[in-house]
TrEMBL record:
Keyword Oxidoreductase recorded: yes
Pfam families in alphabetical order: Nitroreductase
Keywords for the protein's UniProt record, in alphabetical order: Flavoprotein, FMN, Oxidoreductase
Protein name: Nitroreductase family protein
Cross-referenced InterPro entries: Nitroreductase (IPR029479), Nitroreductase-like (IPR000415), Nitroreductase/BluB (IPR050627)
Taxonomic path: Bacteria, Pseudomonadati, Pseudomonadota, Betaproteobacteria, Burkholderiales
Protein backbone atom coordinates (compact mmCIF):
# COMPACT_ATOMS: atom_id res chain seq x y z
CA UNK A 1 0.00 0.00 0.00
CA UNK A 2 1.33 3.41 -0.96
CA UNK A 3 0.97 6.15 1.59
CA UNK A 4 1.18 9.86 0.94
CA UNK A 5 3.37 11.66 3.41
CA UNK A 6 2.15 15.13 4.25
CA UNK A 7 4.64 17.89 4.88
CA UNK A 8 3.89 21.16 6.63
CA UNK A 9 3.54 24.14 4.33
CA UNK A 10 6.66 26.30 4.31
CA UNK A 11 6.55 29.69 5.97
CA UNK A 12 6.44 32.44 3.36
CA UNK A 13 7.22 36.14 3.40
CA UNK A 14 6.85 39.08 1.03
CA UNK A 15 9.59 39.71 -1.52
CA UNK A 16 10.36 42.97 0.22
CA UNK A 17 13.73 43.97 -1.24
CA UNK A 18 13.11 43.50 -4.96
CA UNK A 19 12.38 46.56 -7.07
CA UNK A 20 12.22 46.61 -10.84
CA UNK A 21 14.52 49.02 -12.64
CA UNK A 22 13.83 51.00 -15.81
CA UNK A 23 15.17 49.23 -18.90
CA UNK A 24 17.87 51.84 -19.55
CA UNK A 25 19.17 51.58 -15.99
CA UNK A 26 19.20 47.79 -16.27
CA UNK A 27 21.29 48.03 -19.42
CA UNK A 28 23.68 50.53 -17.83
CA UNK A 29 24.12 48.36 -14.73
CA UNK A 30 24.70 45.22 -16.81
CA UNK A 31 27.32 47.00 -18.93
CA UNK A 32 29.04 48.47 -15.87
CA UNK A 33 29.14 45.09 -14.15
CA UNK A 34 30.68 43.47 -17.22
CA UNK A 35 33.27 46.25 -17.55
CA UNK A 36 34.20 45.76 -13.89
CA UNK A 37 34.42 41.98 -14.12
CA UNK A 38 36.42 41.87 -17.34
CA UNK A 39 39.23 43.68 -15.51
CA UNK A 40 39.58 40.70 -13.18
CA UNK A 41 42.77 38.71 -13.76
CA UNK A 42 44.19 35.73 -11.94
CA UNK A 43 47.34 36.83 -10.08
CA UNK A 44 50.34 34.75 -8.97
CA UNK A 45 52.50 37.55 -7.52
CA UNK A 46 51.03 38.92 -4.30
CA UNK A 47 52.05 41.75 -2.01
CA UNK A 48 52.30 40.73 1.65
CA UNK A 49 50.30 43.73 2.95
CA UNK A 50 47.45 42.69 5.25
CA UNK A 51 43.82 42.96 4.15
CA UNK A 52 41.20 44.42 6.54
CA UNK A 53 39.29 41.57 8.15
CA UNK A 54 35.97 43.37 7.71
CA UNK A 55 36.44 43.33 3.92
CA UNK A 56 36.88 39.55 3.89
CA UNK A 57 33.97 39.00 6.27
CA UNK A 58 31.57 40.95 4.06
CA UNK A 59 32.80 39.09 0.96
CA UNK A 60 32.16 35.80 2.78
CA UNK A 61 28.69 37.00 3.74
CA UNK A 62 28.09 37.76 0.05
CA UNK A 63 29.21 34.22 -0.83
CA UNK A 64 26.79 32.91 1.76
CA UNK A 65 23.85 34.47 -0.10
CA UNK A 66 24.37 32.06 -3.01
CA UNK A 67 21.54 29.69 -3.94
CA UNK A 68 22.03 26.05 -2.95
CA UNK A 69 20.23 22.73 -3.21
CA UNK A 70 17.32 22.76 -0.72
CA UNK A 71 19.01 25.86 0.80
CA UNK A 72 21.37 23.56 2.72
CA UNK A 73 24.36 25.86 2.10
CA UNK A 74 26.88 22.99 1.99
CA UNK A 75 30.03 25.07 2.21
CA UNK A 76 32.62 26.19 4.71
CA UNK A 77 35.31 28.83 4.23
CA UNK A 78 38.48 28.51 6.33
CA UNK A 79 40.42 31.81 6.27
CA UNK A 80 44.15 31.36 6.90
CA UNK A 81 46.52 34.19 7.75
CA UNK A 82 48.96 32.50 10.17
CA UNK A 83 52.42 32.43 8.53
CA UNK A 84 53.36 29.05 10.01
CA UNK A 85 50.15 27.46 8.76
CA UNK A 86 50.58 29.02 5.32
CA UNK A 87 54.07 27.50 5.15
CA UNK A 88 52.70 24.07 6.04
CA UNK A 89 50.06 24.42 3.34
CA UNK A 90 52.67 25.48 0.79
CA UNK A 91 54.89 22.50 1.63
CA UNK A 92 51.99 20.04 1.35
CA UNK A 93 50.68 21.63 -1.86
CA UNK A 94 54.08 21.69 -3.53
CA UNK A 95 54.59 18.01 -2.72
CA UNK A 96 51.40 17.20 -4.62
CA UNK A 97 52.34 19.60 -7.41
CA UNK A 98 55.74 17.98 -7.92
CA UNK A 99 54.04 14.61 -8.32
CA UNK A 100 51.57 16.19 -10.75
CA UNK A 101 54.16 17.82 -13.00
CA UNK A 102 56.64 14.93 -12.87
CA UNK A 103 54.31 12.20 -14.05
CA UNK A 104 50.78 12.25 -12.70
CA UNK A 105 49.48 14.79 -15.22
CA UNK A 106 48.78 13.62 -18.79
CA UNK A 107 50.75 15.36 -21.52
CA UNK A 108 47.61 16.99 -22.91
CA UNK A 109 46.97 18.69 -19.56
CA UNK A 110 50.54 19.96 -19.36
CA UNK A 111 50.25 21.39 -22.88
CA UNK A 112 47.08 23.23 -21.84
CA UNK A 113 48.86 24.74 -18.83
CA UNK A 114 51.99 25.75 -20.73
CA UNK A 115 50.70 29.21 -21.88
CA UNK A 116 50.08 30.12 -18.24
CA UNK A 117 53.66 29.37 -17.17
CA UNK A 118 52.72 27.35 -14.10
CA UNK A 119 55.10 24.94 -12.34
CA UNK A 120 55.36 23.07 -8.99
CA UNK A 121 56.63 26.13 -7.11
CA UNK A 122 53.87 28.02 -5.28
CA UNK A 123 55.47 30.92 -3.35
CA UNK A 124 52.18 32.82 -3.40
CA UNK A 125 50.83 30.41 -0.78
CA UNK A 126 53.16 32.10 1.71
CA UNK A 127 53.45 35.58 0.24
CA UNK A 128 49.74 36.42 -0.01
CA UNK A 129 48.22 37.71 3.24
CA UNK A 130 45.27 35.30 3.11
CA UNK A 131 44.32 31.86 1.91
CA UNK A 132 40.68 30.76 1.91
CA UNK A 133 40.25 27.00 1.87
CA UNK A 134 36.81 26.23 0.44
CA UNK A 135 35.21 23.02 1.67
CA UNK A 136 32.18 21.23 0.24
CA UNK A 137 30.07 19.43 2.83
CA UNK A 138 29.31 16.02 1.31
CA UNK A 139 26.57 15.44 3.87
CA UNK A 140 25.19 17.16 6.95
CA UNK A 141 25.13 16.11 10.60
CA UNK A 142 22.09 16.96 12.71
CA UNK A 143 21.92 17.90 16.39
CA UNK A 144 21.72 14.19 17.32
CA UNK A 145 24.87 13.38 15.36
CA UNK A 146 22.98 11.65 12.54
CA UNK A 147 23.91 12.07 8.89
CA UNK A 148 21.51 13.58 6.40
CA UNK A 149 21.91 14.04 2.64
CA UNK A 150 22.99 17.22 0.92
CA UNK A 151 21.86 17.86 -2.64
CA UNK A 152 23.62 19.47 -5.61
CA UNK A 153 26.75 20.02 -3.54
CA UNK A 154 29.28 20.71 -6.38
CA UNK A 155 26.88 23.08 -8.11
CA UNK A 156 26.06 24.93 -4.88
CA UNK A 157 29.67 25.34 -3.77
CA UNK A 158 30.70 26.40 -7.28
CA UNK A 159 28.08 29.15 -7.31
CA UNK A 160 29.11 30.36 -3.83
CA UNK A 161 32.76 30.41 -4.90
CA UNK A 162 31.83 32.53 -7.91
CA UNK A 163 30.00 34.95 -5.64
CA UNK A 164 33.07 35.13 -3.38
CA UNK A 165 35.54 35.78 -6.20
CA UNK A 166 33.28 38.48 -7.63
CA UNK A 167 32.90 40.14 -4.22
CA UNK A 168 36.65 40.13 -3.61
CA UNK A 169 37.29 41.61 -7.05
CA UNK A 170 34.66 44.31 -6.49
CA UNK A 171 36.38 45.14 -3.19
CA UNK A 172 39.67 45.76 -5.03
CA UNK A 173 41.48 42.51 -4.24
CA UNK A 174 43.18 39.97 -6.49
CA UNK A 175 42.64 36.22 -6.32
CA UNK A 176 44.04 32.93 -7.55
CA UNK A 177 42.09 29.67 -7.60
CA UNK A 178 44.61 26.99 -6.64
CA UNK A 179 43.63 23.31 -6.82
CA UNK A 180 46.42 20.92 -5.82
CA UNK A 181 45.19 17.37 -6.26
CA UNK A 182 44.61 15.63 -3.97
CA UNK A 183 44.24 18.25 -1.26
CA UNK A 184 43.01 16.19 1.68
CA UNK A 185 45.88 17.66 3.71
CA UNK A 186 43.71 20.75 4.15
CA UNK A 187 41.27 18.86 6.39
CA UNK A 188 43.92 18.14 9.01
CA UNK A 189 45.72 21.48 8.70
CA UNK A 190 42.45 23.44 8.95
CA UNK A 191 40.81 21.16 11.51
CA UNK A 192 37.82 20.36 9.31
CA UNK A 193 35.66 17.21 9.72
CA UNK A 194 35.59 14.22 7.39
CA UNK A 195 32.24 15.14 5.86
CA UNK A 196 33.91 18.16 4.24
CA UNK A 197 35.94 17.89 1.05
CA UNK A 198 38.39 20.69 0.16
CA UNK A 199 37.73 21.81 -3.40
CA UNK A 200 39.58 25.11 -3.89
CA UNK A 201 42.36 26.98 -2.15
CA UNK A 202 41.64 30.63 -2.92
CA UNK A 203 44.65 32.94 -2.64
CA UNK A 204 43.67 36.53 -1.75
CA UNK A 205 45.49 39.83 -1.49
CA UNK A 206 46.87 42.84 -3.35
CA UNK A 207 48.91 42.35 -6.54
CA UNK A 208 52.62 42.88 -6.02
CA UNK A 209 53.89 46.16 -7.55
CA UNK A 210 54.94 45.48 -11.13
CA UNK A 211 52.93 42.25 -11.19
CA UNK A 212 52.82 40.53 -14.58
CA UNK A 213 50.06 38.19 -15.77
CA UNK A 214 50.02 35.79 -18.73
CA UNK A 215 48.50 37.23 -21.90
CA UNK A 216 46.75 33.89 -22.41
CA UNK A 217 44.72 34.35 -19.21
CA UNK A 218 43.05 37.47 -20.58
CA UNK A 219 41.76 35.82 -23.73
CA UNK A 220 38.06 35.16 -23.17
CA UNK A 221 35.62 33.56 -25.59
CA UNK A 222 33.22 35.97 -27.33
CA UNK A 223 29.49 35.94 -26.63
CA UNK A 224 28.74 33.93 -29.77
CA UNK A 225 30.90 31.06 -28.50
CA UNK A 226 29.52 30.91 -24.96
CA UNK A 227 25.80 31.40 -25.56
CA UNK A 228 22.91 30.24 -27.73
CA UNK A 229 19.52 31.91 -27.98
CA UNK A 230 16.65 29.53 -28.76
Amino acid sequence: MQTNKSHPKPAMEALAHYHELPAEEMKARARAHYEQQKRRRTVRDFDSRPVPREVIEHCLLAAGTAPSGANQQPWHFAVISDPALKRQIREAAEEEERAFYSGRAPEEWLRALAPLGTDPNKPFLEEAPLLIAIFAQKYGIDAQGERFSHYYVPESVGIATGFLITALHDAGLATLTHTPSPMGFLNSLCGRPENEKPVILLVVGYPKPGCLVPVHGGLKKPLAQISTWL
